[in-house]
Structures are given as structure tokens and as C-alpha cells.
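Troubleshooting entry. Yesterday's outputs looked truncated, so today I'm pasting the complete records for two proteins to confirm everything comes through intact. If either block looks cut off, that's the bug. Protein one:
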Amino acid sequence: MKQVLIVDDDSLVREYLAKEAYNLFGDSEIFTTSTLVDALTICKQKIPSTILLDLVLPDTTGLKGLYAVRELCPDSSIIMISGTVPSKNVLLEMKNLANGFLTKSSHHLTQLADAIHAIESGTEIFENPLSLIHISEPTRPLYIS
């Protein structure tokens, strides 16, 4: 059975995606949390196959959460979601570490679910509300201290 972790401090988004989990991921066990600390605990115990991770959480912002989750779950599909617009450099770094990025502010929840399903099916989506960013060759990782 597929295991899915939804990490978002917006309870409406978290609850909607958890309810839509069967349509999004098929037969799956769903875990939800609103903090990075709890997400990392779940990752250590379960190693989810898919992780939906908010870019801004109460206990972390930016790429620190993505780095931490990727380190614990190197083979998981990680889809970043956020209500804030990251810089181009952050989007480029996400492309190196995540399987997709979706802006919550650009989608109705049903559209967000459809986009997550597309990423899970192999479509690469890294959104910027003003334009989509496409990178044809690998980029050098940016290091954040």
C-alpha cells in the first residue's frame, strides 16, 4: 500500500488533500501534519512514497524543510506547495530536489489536486504565477547556510 504524507499548516488544504487521497494516489495510507518536526518523525517511521510539502511551515521556511525531508526520503516523490511566490533561485533549487512545485494561490483546491495527480503521473510542473520555468540542463545546487 502506498504511503502519502501531507505537510501543510493550512488545515483546509491539508484536509481537502487527505479526503482526495484515493483519487490522487489510489489505495493509500495517508499521514497529515502541520509542522516539519512531525513530518520528519513520520518520515523516519514510514518513509512515504509521496510527500506534499508546504514551503512555509510554522517551524521552517524556504528550502530547509525540503533538504531535511529529501535527506530522510531520497526515493520519495516530493511535491512542494506554497501560497507564497519563491524567488527564481529557490525555484531552480527546488527543481534539483523536488518532483514539482505548485502555488496554492494560483489554483482552486480541485485544480491543485489535478496538478498533483499530473505530477504523480510523471508530468514535471514547477510553477511561477507569472510564468512556468523550464530548465533544459541540470543546474549546480545552491547551498543555503
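Protein two, checking that the full record survives here as well:
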Amino acid sequence: ALANSFELNYGKIPDTIGILNFGAAITNFVVLQKGEVIFCRDIPVGGANYTNEIHKAMGVTIEEAESLKLSAVSRGDVPDEVHNIISMTNEAIAEEIRNSLDFLSATSNGLSLSRCYFTGGSSSTSGLVDMVSRATNIPMEAFNPFRRITGNPKKFTPEYLNQISAFAGVVTGLA
């Protein structure tokens, strides 16, 4: 679905690129080479990892941990410990992605990505995309699932489509 959405919006790119969909429980990782899917993996990390780590480290309920996470993402006032937990979790997620890239390289004669596109609700987590880019040494670019898709302006304002774009990568590919 991510590959379908990407091709519809960006066409077939001659480079080898990755797409990361940072979801709640899973990060989907798709690699396209000349427009064809050559690697696909569901990495068992996502937004819930942040919530669970805050819950465990701070001794708060899951609901309170989720609230603290969302406040931190929206730049609200939260204890410094929340930012530290988010940063440590970013490192763990970046490590998982780097491991997937290492596996891809080892099984494909050293194949590397020219760039990686990101999407998903958890992609807005403070520092996550930068951490992944630094850990993998791959430039990251936001994936726009509405780049070539226009909605009915009577039902969907451009502001609304921009607001939901991080959540629409998979569904636009399924549609």
C-alpha cells in the first residue's frame, strides 16, 4: 500500500529509496528500487513504545503516559524526564531501523538507499526522524500522500489534508 501511494504521488524513481511508516505499534519499512518493492519489513516499534517507557519509568498510568507523550510532541510543558525518555526511545527505534538496513545490505550485495521518506502518526515525535537520519546516514524527507491527489474542496480543506497527511500514506495506497 505504501509503494502504491508513493508511485501514484511521486512516480517511479530510478533510485533505491526507503519508506518508513511510523505507526502506533509497528513501523513499516519498504524499499523500492526503480519503482519495484525489493524489501518489506514490519519492525515491532512505534508510538506505543514511548507511552510504555514513560509509564514504566515514571510510574504513571498508561493514560497519563500517553497524555505526557502527546504534550511533549505538541511542545507542551512536561517534566524533563519525559524528554529524556523520548530521546532514549528514539535511539532504540533508530537502532532497530539501522539493523533492518544492515540486514538489507548484507542480503543484497551492499545495497544502500539514496534517501528515505517518512510518514505515520508517530513520525511527529520530537527528534525521531533526525535520530533515524543520523543513525543511518540517510537523508529523510516527509512523504506527502496528497501530492497528486486532490480532494473535494467542499469536503476537505487544504489545511485539513495537510493535518492528516501523516496518517494517510497507507490508506491512499489501499484506495
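Both blocks look complete. Sanity check on protein two: The chain has a mean pLDDT of 94.
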